[in-house]
Structures are given as structure tokens and as C-alpha cells.
Amino acid sequence: MLEKLKARWKVNGVNLVLIIATFALGGSLCGWAGRRLLLLTGLEKGITWIVLYILLITLLWPLCVLLISIPLGQFAFFKHYIQRIGKKFGGKKNNGPVNIAIFASGAGSNAQKIIEHFAGSHTVKVALIVCNKPTAGVLSIAADQHIPALLIEKERFFNGDSYIAELQKQHIDLIVLAGFLWKIPSSLIAAYPKKIINIHPALLPKYGGKGMYGGNVHEAVIAAGEKESGISIHYVDELYDHGKIIFQASCSVDENDTPGSLAEKIHRLEHAHYPRVIGSLLQK
Hints:
The chain has helices spanning 2-9, 13-41, 47-69, 75-89, 109-118, 137-144, 154-159, 164-169, 186-191, 215-223, 259-283, and strands spanning 98-104, 124-131, 149-151, 174-177, 196-200, 228-235, 245-252. It has 11 helices and 7 strands. Strand 2 (124-131), helix 6 and strand 3 (149-151) form a beta-alpha-beta unit. The longest helix is centred in the first third of the chain and has 29 residues, at 13-41.
């Protein structure tokens, strides 16, 4: 059950404990406050008292939970949670866009194409750029496009909270890996099940796995005498380049191709297909 809650709320184990504690303490505070207020009315316990008590705790519960969530560091989660409850019971549909976070480590050419593809869209928004290299070109793209950027460090990403709280603050719905060279930790995968996708510069399952990225892939393809290569867009799981394949496209590998010329062919495929496949995926 706890694993289901972690996946549903997109949180890690520590935050799940804090959320449950907030529910418990907030509920206790709400009940105490409701009883104290009714004491001031002088009413004896009966039908009227019970009805008023239910009304009071219904009104007080959001405030009490939000107050408790502040010292426990869960205010952003509960603010979003209460807003969703209000929309549900108020009969309002969530007409906001789907928020994408792009994870990238390099120049960001794929990120640029994705941003351009969804520019002006009312249904999809590139809401965050996540990067692990302070000198990466993708950070300049984020600044030029006025998109918030998050520079992450290895220890917290792999052994800490994996920046899940920051992703939640931006209400991220889908994580798109676009040349991101770190393996995604299991805590982040659990928080975003089937909501993380990657693009790989080869026709998986060939030429995937640890160390198989960029020029390394193209060198291996040419050295093996392959007649074609291509791209694979897939869901991310705990293994390198292993998740379910969503889409593939291929190109020829000619006798005079070099790793550099093959890389150019692959980039053209990536730029042509990745933004479109993301859009199609979000429409399902």
C-alpha cells in the first residue's frame, strides 16, 4: 500500500512519512479546535452539536493541515492536494497545461526543438530545465526562453531526495530526458511511474547500456559494420536503455560514414521525431 501511495503522490519514502504525519497531526488539531470552538457556544451534545462539529471540522481541516505542513516541509504538496480536492468537489476541470521537465547535460539541441515545438501551446508547457553541468549550453537556452532551470548535484540526486520536491513545486507531469547522462535513481522512477521517457541514438536493444551514448554509440555501430542505425524513444526503468520502446526511426549507415556524419543523421531524426512523439504521447 505504501508503494502505491508513493507512486500516486510522486514522493519518496521520507516525504511519504512526513505526509502521513501531517495528515494525522492536522486531523488531531482540527478535531481539538472544533471541540474548543463548540465549547464557547455552550451547546449540549446532541444532533445540533454534531452537525455544527462536522461543519466546523470540514472548514478547519484545510487550514490545520496547511499549518502543520509548514514545519514538516510539506506545504507545497498539501497546497496542491487541497486545490485538487476543491476543484473535484466544485465540479471544475483542470484546464491547466501538462507540465514537462527536460533533463539535459549538454548543448541542448533536442531541448531547443522541444521548446520550439510547444511554444504557444495552451495544453503543453516546458516548465523546467534540469541540468547536472553548470557549463552546459542547455542552461543558456533556458535563460533565453525564460524557463526556470534547476542545477542538480550528484550526492542529492542519487542518495538524497532526488529533487522530487522541486519537481512537485513546478507541478511536473512528464520528465523528458534529452541527452541526460546520469542514470535515473529508483526513487525518481517510483515517483513518476511511466512518466519518464528517454531518446537513445541507436535501434535498441542494440547498442544500449552503460557507456553507450553519443559518439560511443556511433563508433560501435560503424565498427560492427551495421547497415542501418536510428533512434529509440522509450520509457525509463531501473536499467540503462531498457524500458518499453515507444517509437523508433532508422537511417542508413553508408560505407563512407564516420561517427561524425552518422551523428548528424541521428540528430536530424531526433529533432524531427522527438517533439512530435512527446505530443502524441500526451494526447493518449
